[in-house]
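the two lines:
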Amino acid sequence: MSDLSFDNIYSEYSRLVYWAAYRVVAQKEAAEDITQQVFERAYLNMDKLSELADAQLKSWLYRVATNLALDSVRKGKHELLSDEPVGAEIADTDPLPEAELIKKQRQEAVQRAIQQLDETSRTIIMLHYFSEMTVNEIAAQTGISQGTIKSRLVRARNIIKELLTAEADGNEEI
Amino acid sequence: MKKYDHIRPVTDNTAAEPAPVPPGGYTGVGPLPEDAEIDCILKLTADELTAEVDFAGIRERALKSAKAAKAKRGKLRRAVSYGLFAAASVFFGFALFTVLGKIHTAPHGNVDVLNTQPADTDEGIFRGMTPGTDPNFVRRTTVGTVSEEEAEEIVNSVSELLPDALPNSMTTLVDQGSSRVCASGVDDEGTEVSYVCSIENSSPIALAVGQVGAMTDGEDTTYYWQVADGQFISMHFIGFEVKDADSMFESIAKRITEGEAPAETTAPAETADSAN
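prediction for all of em together
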């Protein structure tokens, strides 16, 4: 990676790291803790990381984030809440302006739909949309073939669309 | 790529303007339009949730923690380096001491070291060592051997093993039954001094036949000399300066190895029998 500095790495990959950790721990604070730990290690290993190509660096960060998250869950530091929708803990009980309420409802509807996907499809959706990884990168990290990833993405999107439509229809009936 | 450009601003919900309508037109409320693009809705949701993460705070905490860890690592590294240096110093110091000792006691390097000391040396065979500070303050040197007959004669005439240079004021005790002679008193400067010489069948210092081992703490100086196999002459000088003890030992060693008769001495001012 040319012109590599800690700030460059952080601005480029902090989102990937955060959501990679979140995918495992499913808690905002826990994911933030792990993101902090990953970049602490990155800072301490800058001399080695500066020799890596972009793809290798991204892969290193993803692996460290995932491993730390899995360790954290194993040690019980952060309880794994697999049934909790993405971002559910940020919901707030204060009255919200209408626009914000609509946004929150949409976010929660999308998160619930994602939670209803099977494990593989959920992982692929999280890595693709939240960690912003390409199909190639997901294939490299998960070992799933690119063809499978593409077909899973199409199928997952269709399922989410169906779930959102059904939820919207339900809301309308109420 | 701009700094944090993936962290898109959260919509200002207090503003009067309506919330932006996501691509595909779906807001999460009401029926999903036929042309709603789930792909865009997912991207929008991911961006919004990402914008709620305090990435700047995480960065600050990571940097602070990393710098603290780096400082700690540096301290640890320095401590290990110092430890290794100290260990290496001790090891090489010990090795050097051992090598010097071997050279000193080697057959070609130790021929009667006592007799080869410079006349003006103040330290005798302890030259280069620090009395009272070096726990291994022991020197070995080869003085010589005597025949079995001579060894037996020494055992029987231990009362003669009095240095010529003992102060005149010292009282001498000859322990007739235990092959030991003692002398005690004060020297010319009023310092209490003692001398004990005995014949032993072992030594606290590992010695070869003919070899003498000497140790001192700067005030007390002891010599063990294996004059014959299993026959050790022990001489203990208490309160004497090392150079004086060295000189007195040398005189006795010379007398024994060269068969010289003891010089006429006035040292034993009084002789008593301990049996009395």
